[in-house]
Every structure is written in C-alpha cells, then in structure tokens.
Amino acid sequence: MAPSLTGTVTGAFHQETPNPTSDPAVYDIHHQKFTSAGLPSTTEGWLERARSVSEILAEDASARDDQNKSPRAEIALLKSSGLLKLLGPKAFGGGGQGWDVAYKAIREVAKGDGSIGMLLGYHLLWSTTANLVGTDEQKDRFQKTIIENNYFIGGAVNPRDNDLKITDHGDHLIFDGQKHFNTGGVVSDLTVLEGILEGTEDHIFAFVTTVQDGITFAHNWNNVGLRLTESGSIKISQVKVPWVNALGWDIVTHKPNPAILSIPFATLLLPTIQLVFSNFYLGIALGSLQFATNYTKTSTRAWPYGGDNKTSASEEFYILERYGNFFAHLRAAEALVDRAGDEAAKIYAEYGQNREVSERERGELAEWVASTKIVTTDEGLRVTAGVFEVTGSRATGKKVGLDRFWRDIRTHSLHDPVAYKNREVGEFALLDKIPEPTWYT
C-alpha cells in the first residue's frame, strides 16, 4: 500500500483490536449462482463475471465503507466468482487469461468498490510472483497450489520500510521484521514475504501460510480511503521457510539463480503492479461518474437563478458541459490504459516461457505504464472531486457516499509520487532514456 511518511517503521509494534468481519453468508445467493455457472470460458465471459461482482458490491458499497469491517464476505465473493483464478493456467483449473483481461476485470470490480478492486489486483500480482522470479518447478507448484485451493494472496512487501531480515539455518530460512503496510494480509490464505539474506545484498521472495504464530497483524488500518483493504502493519517473528520455497534460488548452493533473478524479465513485477494501480484508479473514477450520473438524473435540482432556467438539472448547460468533459477525458484514459495492458500482455505471451525480454522492451513497457499512472492519477482525482459540481450540495451528505471515490484514489495515489513518473516519462520523451528498474519503476 502507501509508503510510511518516514520511510521506516519506528517504535514498538502495537496490536489493536481487530475490526469485526463481514459475513460471507450475505452473498450466499451469489455464491450459489457462480458455483453453479462454473468458470467463464471466454474473455467476454470473464469480464461479464467481473461486472456482476461489481454490481453486487456497488449496492451497499457506501455502507460497507462506513462500517469498515474486515472484508471476509467480499473475499469470499471474489473466490466464488472465480476471479482469483483468472490468470491461472487452464491445466490447473485456472482461467487461462492474459494480463490485458485481468486489468479490465480489476477496473470493472473497482467501479463498484475501489477497495475490492485493489485487493483483486494485488492478489493477481502476488499470486503470479513465482511466474516472474521463481524456477519453472516453483512456478507450476505454486500456481497449482493457489488455483486448486482457490487461495487469496496478500503481500507484506513495502519497500519504504526496512527489509525483513533473513537468516540461513541449513535446510530452511527464518524471516524476521515488520512492515508498516501490508495489503490484504488479514484476510489472506498465503502471504508473500520479501527480505534480504543476512550477510548479502540479495533479496528473497517466498510464500508463507498466513495463519501462523509468527505472523501478527496490528489491525491498525483505519485510513480515509480504501478502508476495506486491510492494509495495516504486520510483524514477522521467526517465520520458517524451506529453502525449496525461496523463489529463484538454488536449493543446493543457496545462491540466487542468475538466469532467473539477474535478467530484465524478473523486474517486470514492478510495471505489472503499477498498471494494476492505474486500472483501479480508472475504475474508481468511472464508477464515480456513473454514480453521479444516476444521482444527477434523480436527485439534483436545477438552479433557479441562472437567467436561463431549466426544469431539470440534466438540461442545464454547465452540467452537460462538465459531464461531457469528464466522459471524454476518461474515455481517452481508458484507451491509453488498454493500450498499456495490451503491451504488457504481449510481453508476457512472448517471453513468459523463455524470459528473454530485453532491457529496451522492458523499459518501453515501463514508459507506457508510467504514462497511464500520470493520466489516471490526474484525471481520477479531477473527476472524483469534480462530480460534486454536477450533483449539488446535497450530494455531500454522508448517506450518499459520493466522497468515497475521491478518498479511495487520494489514498492510494500517494503510494509513490506521480511527479517522479512525470520526470521519468520526460526523460524518455526528451532523451530516449529508459528507466532503471527500481521498487517503484
């Protein structure tokens, strides 16, 4: 999630009382429907499934945001819908779709509920981590485990904090430390950990079972937006990981495999998740415009003192002008985001097996992604704040819930400053410089 203001976790780890959890039974009728229908078999079927989930979540999104319950029910809905399996190989029971489809599904879910769209996006990234930094054996093993068990994956990989400390104990590793932010961990089945092996500068990623004595959640996520993402602090104490689960490492020599971890393909993890961000920003913005449209047509009153008075708000020039402007800019943003998604899917399709993507190809994808981050941040914040201009003062009422869209984008768009993306794209446009891979690039 978003970085800490100081960049490190300081002070003692304080565990607060967990939030009450939402009840998966509230979606029983939908669980039965999705289970009976089975997984979609076409791309359009997957997107229709995402739209169905979005519509279900949108019905009470404002109330759930206000209640701030741990999203057990919402994760159960993602599970029964099959969306957690969208990227998985068909051989293991997955959807066999590409990232272009996954991004669109994330966007659809975020239209109805930004928090759950974000959780779906992070899950799809973390659940395929072994595809990027694992061996072929690890890739197949973890994909099979995740898909066959319909696991939801969380991640405790906030780069702004100190890295977790990893020590070698012969046949296994021990992870220790804490992170100011993790995403979805409280409601996850598996958690991705990342740290540095003691005595080296080498990073290790590993999947671990979430529910265990060594993992403690602070339950301190109560932020202004994305309130249902369970993105609070986490403490890792003596968590044991077999060497065989250290992604991309040689289990005999206890060394990183350079053919996996020292090539540009492994660093695709970063633009992939940055494009996840752009898609749920865009989804949230599109959701806000649709919500505002319905409100304007049913509840906004025409202004009686303009001199060219109309009988309904939807006839007023300034309201039509604003909606037209918002719609056009979001349509342009959607075209850009889809193009970036196509570029990502193309690289995965071409290099997913041989991992031979070049630095240049990786860098050009990163610039497509950086462009989307700039545009979706700027337009997302503008539209989600601007919709109040076309809905009126009564739309600021808490029971309306129109503010949640802006709060969600504002919260996550601080994850990494968009100003650096502007500079990065400027260097690419002016100097033809591709970015050096970092934790945020």
TrEMBL record:
Gene3D superfamilies: Acyl-CoA dehydrogenase/oxidase, N-terminal domain (1.10.540.10), Butyryl-CoA Dehydrogenase, subunit A, domain 2 (2.40.110.10), Butyryl-CoA Dehydrogenase, subunit A, domain 3 (1.20.140.10). Coiled coil: none annotated. It holds the Pfam family Acyl-CoA_dh_N. Residues 275-415 form the Acyl-CoA dehydrogenase C-terminal domain. GO terms for molecular function: 3-methylbutanoyl-CoA dehydrogenase activity; flavin adenine dinucleotide binding. Residues 1-26 are annotated as: Disordered. The keyword Flavoprotein applies. It comes from the Eukaryota. Keywords: Flavoprotein, Oxidoreductase. InterPro entries: Acyl-CoA_DH_C, Acyl-CoA_Oxase/DH_mid-dom_sf, AcylCo_DH-like_C, AcylCoA_DH/ox_N, AcylCoA_DH/ox_N_sf, AcylCoA_DH/oxidase_NM_dom_sf. Transmembrane segments: none annotated. One of its GO terms (biological process) is L-leucine catabolic process. The keyword NADP does not apply. Residues 53-147 form the Acyl-CoA dehydrogenase/oxidase N-terminal domain. This is Dibenzothiophene desulfurization enzyme C. The gene is soxC.
